[in-house]
Sequence to fold (454 residues):
Amino acid sequence: MKKIWAIFRKDLLIEFRTKDSLNSMLFFGIVVLIIFNFALESRPDSTRSAVPGILWVAFAFSGTLGLNRAFAAEKENSCLQGLLMIPVDRGVLYLGKMLAATVFMLIAEAVIFVFSLVFFNLTVWAEIPYLILVFLIGTLGFTAVGTLLSAVAVNTKLREILLPVILFPVVLPVLVNAVEATNIILNAHDYRALRLPLAIMSVFTIVFGTLSCLLFEHVLED
Amino acid sequence: MIEVRGISKYFGKLTALRDLNLTIRTGEFVALLGRNGAGKTTLLRILAGLSRPSSGTLRIQTAGKAGALAARGSIGYLSHNTSLYLDLTALENLRFYSKLMDLPAADKVLEEKIGQVGLAGREREPVRNYSRGMQQRLAIARAFLHHPDVLLLDEPFAGLDHAGSEFLKRYLLAARAQGKTCIMAIHDARLGYETADRLVVIEKGIAILDVPKRTLSFAEFQKEYERISSEQ
Fold:
């Protein structure tokens, strides 16, 4: 746990110093909101039903930008090589990187969500605890796969293009269920119906998180 | 002891190492010489566990526990890439690696290590502000933080000025005196001859010359090395 924390803390320290990931994630997420805001301006009655999809498009795209940076920073100066020489189970490296990617994505999501309240004129005080739960599980599912695939993509020439191409088909079940769960919270208000999408996302996160942790070692060797 | 038995490494159609056999005894200092693309770095990366051979076996006997993790713990790998985070300070870099290796990470201990590589007073500066030579000095502290028994060095003198080169030479000679096993890939035949006690020339993935330094003078070695290089 101490080692996972050390990797997470290092990533956090570098990010707060450089703001490489967060700035681009936030910028991109907010631009997505602005575009949809203009697109839906003429149909205010349908805005609320479109918000779950818009939010997760913004989260997924900005999250992909963050994941692209997660290992790009390790490639600079061959830092990844230094990490791989450390006598520690490589699953620890995966968990540390995943934790950092999750926190960066959650920070971006929080800011994007606040902007969405303004752009789409939403009032959601009562729904916030449920939304936090969905955002958390959805993000964990996204980064569980994304961290592994980011490590795969980083060794290729076209990493910025390759990551979304290989990531989105795999995380589709998470994104679909996250949109469904957010829609239930914002529009249907039948919280019992949340069980199924949350269960699917949780199972996905556990299964793919475990697989990714085990496969991480093989991904990093050439 | 390090035993390399019949190791080959292919990158698609390219053969980087071809059925390579090498036994390196504990405490030996081996210089790997050869042209660019001869397979020196590939061999070092396989020895470091950073790359998996396509075929063949590698055995690294360590004093402590058995297993891949223990072997990795007994190896220090230094290349011309420093593996330092440029946006962290020297102290933060060493603290990070120390924590991952369960080593003492107190500022005083780490400041002493930074001082030993000649960077006292610069501990709290971001590594990005360091010159190439200073970064390489810090990389030495990072790579050998855990006092490894085996030092793998890939062109460690690259980018170092005269003072830095002299410092590294002294450091390596001290490591040899302590009985550490050193394997160093190097282009400069004279530097390799001066520091090592065994010279291995690799060409096209094969060790074509493997001689103890004491058996030939530098002039003889250079003549032989040039002959091999011109033949290939």
The CA atoms of residues 11 and 126 of chain B lie 37 Å apart. The helical segments of chain B are 40-47, 68-73, 90-100, 107-116, 132-143, 162-177, 189-195, 218-231. The mean pLDDT of chain B is 86.
